Amino acid sequence: MRAPAQVGMRLEEVDTPALILELDAFETNLKRLADAVGGRVRVRAHAKTHKCPEIGKRQIAAGAVGVCCQKVSEAEAMVEGGIADVLISNEIVGARKLDRLAALAKRARLGVCVDHADNVRELQAAALRAGANIDTYIELEVGMRRCGVAPGGPALDLVKVIVASPNLRFAGIHAYHGRAQHIRSAEERRAVIQNSSLLVRNTKTLLEKNKIVCPIVTGAGSGTFMFEVELGAWDEIQPGSYIFMDWDYARNEWAPPMPRFEHALFVLAGVMSRPNPRLAVVDAGLKASSVDSGMPGVWQQPGLSYTHASDEHGWVEIAPGAAAPALGDKLLLVPGHCDPTVNLYDWYVCVREGVVEALWPITARGALT
């Protein structure tokens, strides 16, 4: 796909809609995470957010040990892009996917999550066919109510199946509470993660009593990771959205020890119609910004509100007395949810001080298998 910009362009010259990465804010966010964690745990940044090896490499340069992703195809894109340590923090089921996963494990250090003994047996068979060794984590149900094996005895039984599989290495516990990431109250978020930590500790203790070493407990997201760090039950954290921040995360209460991150990801939209003095219609609708977590916000334009969208159009209402954009003007929108918005684009247009500095391909765009 044709890139919407060229290096050296001014931001206002970029074709719309375009996905803009503000480099100064992005680099600030990388540093703030590293400073907040201070080496107390490992960082394994989540690439499902950005789907871009160029960003993953910068996260590793800032101290991450590797990246997470959610699909085999995302892992393939990361490895092809030069990232050598990838955890698929998800269950992978089906012979074709497992054969691809096992083949990839011969090219890079690869981990995957399981929550069912049948999946462990299928994973072992694929690893044996490929002659590969695969790091295998149990996904522990800690409140997400999605995937995961129950803490305690069921988790122990599943680990025993992994330990008995010659081509699989028991790598540890994956404990992620996604629902906690967007609890608005910082105190309530902390309390939820406190409960998750008890489930993790009890399961790890049970494994140790059965003479099974648990090498790593990994998990946490951008809304809670410092609580996991301070509670001490996690050895590794997996924040993803921190590099961008979206409009939904901005609604969270941010209080110590959580650092404050900056908005770095924007959709550049052009005003395509001014049907009346109180309305501007932009060329960025449902196909340009995900609205599952709410409509995007209009950046630094007081009195302008993006209220609803259709496939190719966005309605921006203009409050009385607000500066009204003219036909052809361009607005920066903060996506409601960064991850699915990124998946709509082929390129990051990387901007510093209003000038395009680089174009980074989103090579794992549409990587769903």
Which spans have pLDDT < 50 for at least 5 consecutive residues? none
Protein structure class: alpha/beta
Round the mean pLDDT to the nearest integer and report it: 97
The total count of strands amounts to 17
Q: What is the CATH-assigned architecture of the largest domain?
A: Alpha-Beta Barrel
CATH fold field value of the largest domain = TIM Barrel
Domain module tally: 2
Instruction: Kindly state the percentage of residues in helix.
Output: 25-40%
Which outline best applies?
Answer: globular
CATH class of the largest domain: Alpha Beta
In terms of DSSP E residues, the strand content is 25-35%
What is the CATH H-level superfamily of the largest domain?
A: Alanine racemase
- What's the Cα radius of gyration? 22 Å
In whole angstroms, how far apart are the ends?
21 Å
